[in-house]
Design a protein that fits this description.
The chain is α+β, with helices and mostly antiparallel strands and 347 residues long. The chain is built from 12 helices and 12 strands.
Length: 347
């Protein structure tokens, strides 16, 4: 073991044991690693400088405790006995001490939903969970070595390709196990965080709340044994409340069903193709009968074809009068085609 590796091991031990040895931390660490108390104090001061440790008092009355910056990661075997709430409680709850309740609620929701997906669906053998809390934000990452979320959805739902699987996932209510899951987990989780990303087998889905739209991109990073990587980030100062995220996609204050969705039209484009055909529109309209209110977000789309707009806003609208279709963020040329179809449906 190199000197650097030994130093990192000592500091990890300090962070693990400070809760139980707040008053004799240096003495405790020196006895474990056969180093002097002065050497142990050197490592303690390094951790204090990084805000990983904090202290009160001086001299013999000095006490140490975990600082405002906290982090932990752990690797698990995926088994039927693995429980996401127990993982949170036993390994990560300490990170969220003194964090606002609304942030804890969002992080608990996101962590348990994504970890449950791994346990129930990934068919992987291992999962790595990591959470980092710094002075501004909380970041969480869950990595499994399973089949890969987009490949699995494509295979089980019989979709034409993995990009189509990702597009369907962005709508919500897509599940490969309808008896046990609603298909709402990823949809709501992606909208609860400031940043939410899924990377799997060469594809990356990203929802950044500040950008106002989702995007899909190919990645050139080799997949190796990694199946799916889910990354979530939220600012500690965020005022977002998880209940309000759910309410945003229901029709009214007394309606707790998930009956509203946003369709990010930009995700429907493959490479640089334009949205022009009825077949493209039909692909986009799949499963929308599960909703009562559908928002078509045209942000990032400069033009659409007449047939594409007609299929959605005249043909589908006439055949599904109980579903309200709302186009938003339209450029001038897009608006012209969409409004033409809407007016035709009203004749």
């Amino acid at each position: 073991m190199s000197q650097k590796e030994r130093g990192e091991k000592i500091r990890r031990q300090i962070l693990r044991d400070v809760v139980y040895h707040s008053e004799d931390l240096a003495k405790h660490i020196s006895s474990i690693f056969s180093i002097t108390p002065q050497a142990a104090n050197h490592h303690i001061r390094r951790l204090e400088k990084k805000s990983l440790l904090a202290s009160t008092g001086v001299g013999k009355g000095k006490k140490y405790f975990l600082g405002d910056v906290r982090k932990h990661q752990i690797l698990f075997k995926v088994t039927d006995e693995l429980q996401e709430d127990r993982i949170w409680r036993e390994h990560f709850a300490f990170i969220f001490e003194d964090i606002p309740e609304n942030i804890v609620d969002i992080c608990l929701h996101g962590f348990t939903e994504m970890m449950n997906n791994v346990i129930d669906h990934s068919e992987g053998e291992e999962v790595l969970a990591a959470i980092i809390r710094d002075k501004e934000k909380v970041q969480m990452r869950i990595i499994d070595n399973g089949e890969g979320i987009f490949r699995r959805i494509k295979r089980l739902v019989d979709l034409p390709d993995e990009k189509n699987a990702l597009f369907e996932l962005s709508k919500g209510k897509l599940t490969t196990d309808p008896d046990n899951h609603t298909g709402e987990g990823i949809f709501f989780t992606s909208r609860a965080f400031d940043e939410f990303e899924i990377e799997s087998k060469g594809l990356e889905f990203s929802h950044h709340e500040g950008d106002g739209f989702d995007f899909l991109m190919d990645t050139d990073r080799p997949a190796g044994k990694i199946g799916t990587v889910v990354s979530m980030m939220i600012q500690r100062a965020s005022k977002r409340i998880i209940r309000e995220v759910f309410d945003k996609f229901t029709q009214g204050p007394d309606d707790y069903g998930f009956n509203r969705t946003v369709v990010p039209m930009q995700l429907a484009q493959y490479d640089k193709e334009k949205l022009v055909s009825r077949s493209q529109a039909k692909r986009m309209l799949a499963r929308l009968e599960k909703f009562e209110y559908v928002i078509f977000d045209f942000k990032g789309i400069n033009d659409v074809g007449q047939a594409f707009a007609d299929e959605i806003f005249r043909v589908y609208a006439r055949n599904n009068p109980d579903i309200k279709l709302v186009p938003v963020h339209m450029e001038k040329d897009v608006s012209k085609m969409v409004n033409r179809a809407i007016h035709a449906s009203e004749k």
